[in-house]
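Translate structure to sequence.
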C-alpha cells in the first residue's frame, strides 16, 4: 500500500515546511547540525536550495527539469522526487536498480560505461500509472532480493525474464573495472588549548573539501597533495608536543594526521577564534577534526552533561 497517501500527507506541504526552516536558518547553524555526517556539500546545497526556492516565490518544483535547476539535486535525486513525491513518470536509477537491470539484460559493458544504456532501459519500463511505486519496487528488489552477493533468484518476481539466471552466474553482474587503491595523504593538526579549556579554531573556506566547517589549524593537505607533518609547520610558535596520530577515510582518499598539542594564552590570531569548553561540542566540526581534538584532549568534543 501507499503509506504516504494513507496518512493523507501532501509532499508539497512537507517540502514547503522544510524550505521555510531551511531559509530561516543561518548557514552556520545548518553546518553545525550537519557536523559529523560527512558529505558536507549536501548541507551547503540544502541551504542554497531553500534560499533559491524562496527567492522564486516559495513553490517547490514538481518536474525533473525544474528539480535539476536546484543546487545539489542531480539526475537520480530529481527523478526520485518527481516520481515518488509527485507521481511523474521518471526513471529512477540508483545502485540497486543498476544491479537489477544489468542482470535482467545481461549487460556485459562495465558499469561505468553502461549507465546510459541502463537509464534508457529503465525509461522504457516506467509505467504512466504509479511511477513512484514502480521506482520504490525496483530499488527494494535490488536491496532485498537481487542482492550483490547470494541473490535470492528463486524468490524473484522477474526471474522468468532474467537473462543472468541463464548464464548461471548472476553475481557476475554488474561488470566492474578493477578499483584503484585510495591514495594516502599526510599532514598535521595543531590543537591549541587555553587555560580555561577553550580550543583555538578557524573556519574552512566555503568551497572545497569540508567547506564551511570548523577546524583546528592544520597544514596544507588536500585530496591531491600532502601537508607538512612536523611541529615546525605550526601556525604560530608554542611548546608543541606530539599527541599521537589519527587516520580518516574520505570518499576519494585516506588521510593520516600527526597531532600536536600546546597550552597557550592570549588573543586568537587573525582568522581564528577561541571556542569555549562548553561550546566545543556544538561547533560544526567534521569527524576528522573531532578525532584530532580527542587525540590531544580526550573528552573535549563530548557534549557536557546536562546539555540537550
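Result:
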Amino acid at each position: 500500500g501507499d503509506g504516504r497517501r494513507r496518512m493523507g500527507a501532501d509532499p508539497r506541504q512537507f517540502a514547503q515546511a522544510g524550505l521555510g526552516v531551511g531559509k530561516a536558518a543561518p548557514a552556520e547553524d545548518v553546518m553545525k547540525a550537519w557536523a559529523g555526517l560527512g558529505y558536507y556539500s549536501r548541507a551547503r546545497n540544502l541551504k542554497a536550495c531553500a534560499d533559491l526556492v524562496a527567492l522564486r516565490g516559495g513553490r517547490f518544483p514538481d518536474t525533473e527539469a525544474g528539480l535539476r535547476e536546484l543546487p545539489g539535486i542531480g539526475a537520480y535525486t530529481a527523478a526520485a522526487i518527481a516520481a515518488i513525491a509527485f507521481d511523474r513518470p521518471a526513471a529512477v536509477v540508483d545502485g540497486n536498480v543498476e544491479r537489477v537491470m544489468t542482470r535482467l539484460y545481461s549487460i556485459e559493458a562495465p558499469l561505468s560505461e553502461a549507465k546510459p544504456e541502463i537509464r534508457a532501459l529503465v525509461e522504457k519500463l516506467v509505467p504512466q500509472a504509479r511511477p513512484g511505486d514502480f521506482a520504490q519496487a525496483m530499488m527494494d528488489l535490488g536491496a532485498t532480493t537481487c542482492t550483490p552477493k547470494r541473490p535470492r533468484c528463486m524468490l524473484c518476481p522477474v526471474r522468468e525474464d532474467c537473462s543472468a539466471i541463464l548464464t548461471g552466474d548472476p553475481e557476475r553482474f554488474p561488470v566492474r573495472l578493477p578499483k584503484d587503491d585510495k591514495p594516502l595523504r599526510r599532514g598535521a593538526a595543531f590543537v591549541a588549548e587555553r587555560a580555561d579549556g577553550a580550543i583555538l579554531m578557524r573556519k574552512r573556506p566555503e568551497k572545497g573539501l569540508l567547506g564551511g566547517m570548523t577546524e583546528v589549524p592544520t597544514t596544507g593537505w588536500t585530496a591531491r597533495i600532502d601537508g607538512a607533518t612536523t611541529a615546525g609547520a605550526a601556525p604560530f610558535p608554542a611548546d608543541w608536543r606530539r599527541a599521537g596520530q589519527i587516520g580518516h577515510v574520505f570518499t576519494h582518499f585516506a588521510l593520516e594526521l600527526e597531532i600536536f598539542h600546546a597550552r597557550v594564552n592570549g588573543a586568537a590570531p587573525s582568522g581564528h577564534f577561541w571556542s569555549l569548553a562548553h561550546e566545543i561540542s556544538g561547533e560544526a566540526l567534521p569527524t576528522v577534526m573531532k578525532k584530532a581534538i580527542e587525540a590531544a584532549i580526550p573528552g573535549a568534543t563530548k557534549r557536557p552533561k546536562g546539555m540537550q
